[in-house]
Design a protein that fits this description.
Blueprint lengths: L4 H133 L6 H10 L3
Helix pairs in contact: 1-2
Length: 156
């Protein structure tokens, strides 16, 4: 291997010149740019952490709102059920009252009809007995008051 010393020295001088020029003109701007980028990355990392914290906060708030909404909805449902049950009870009570009134009216009407039928039956029985009495005894005069009193004593 044949190494030329002058080429080696020239290479070393070129290296030192490039190194000097690099340090003099490029090193500082590159270092500043690297530092600026590091700061930006750091800021972005901090912003990312803040956003993440805010997202967690927002999620917690959303869960709280959902929980409160569920609770309010359940309370509304419960109060609606109570109100509906009360309304149903009122309707049933009103229907029951109307039914009792109708039954009472019907019973009064039945009693009225029964009394009317009893009076008709008593009148017919009285007429039949008087007619039978006339035919059996050939008498024109009959004891109408006696027969009516006896028929009145019969419970039908």
């Amino acid at each position: 291997m044949n190494i030329d010393v002058w080429v080696l020295i020239a290479q070393l001088i070129n290296f030192w010149i490039l190194f000097f020029l690099f340090n003099k003109f490029l090193s500082e701007p590159i270092s500043k740019e690297i530092q600026t980028r590091k700061e930006q990355i750091s800021k972005m990392s901090n912003i990312d952490k803040q956003l993440e914290e805010k997202m967690l906060e927002a999620n917690k708030m959303a869960e709280d709102i959902k929980s409160e909404a569920r609770k309010t909805a359940q309370e509304t449902i419960d109060s609606s059920v109570v109100l509906a049950k009360k309304k149903a009870d009122d309707i049933v009570a009103k229907a029951d009252s109307e039914a009792k009134n109708k039954v009472s009216d019907a019973q009064k009407e039945i009693e009225k009809e029964r009394l009317s039928m009893m009076n008709n039956a008593k009148a017919k029985i009285t007429g039949l007995v008087l007619s039978l009495n006339r035919k059996l005894f050939d008498e024109e005069k009959t004891n109408k008051e006696f027969i009516e009193k006896e028929i009145e004593g019969i419970k039908l």
